[in-house]
Amino acid sequence: MHKNLQRDFRDIRTECEKLASGQQSELARAEERQRAQLRLQEIAAILDGQGGSSPLINLGEVTGLLHRLQNQPSALTA
């Protein structure tokens, strides 16, 4: 399960970095951004329920990315 969480986190982080650098990103669409935020919240809840530790993914990194995504301006496209 943690491997899947790590993969989802990594994919969202990559898209967030693309958005921040002005590249084309799935997160430029409001629906995809919302889905990413919900997934990060789910990942954080799972990790928090397990004591916040995993050899593959760090709760602090997940919450940091969630805050970054929530505060990052988006170039929303229709």
Write up this protein.
There is one protein chain. The chain has helices at 2-20, 30-49, 59-71. By secondary structure, the chain is mainly α. The model has no long low-confidence stretch (mean pLDDT 87). It has one domain. It is built from three helices and no strands.
List keywords for this structure.
78 residues, mainly alpha
Number of domains: 1
Overall radius of gyration: 12 Å
Uncertain spans: none
Major β-sheet profile: none
Helix-and-strand structural type: mainly alpha
Mean pLDDT, nearest integer? 87
Question: Could you give the order of the helices and strands?
Answer: HHH
Tell me the helix content.
55-70%
- Share of β-strand residues: under 5%
Please tally the β strands and state the result: 0
The DSSP helix count reads: 3
Basic shape: elongated
Please give the alpha-carbon distance between the first and last residues: 34 Å
Write the layout of secondary structure elements.
Blueprint: H1 2-20, H2 30-49, H3 59-71
Helix pairs in contact: 1-2, 2-3
Question: TL;DR of this structure?
Answer:
By secondary structure, the protein is mostly helical.
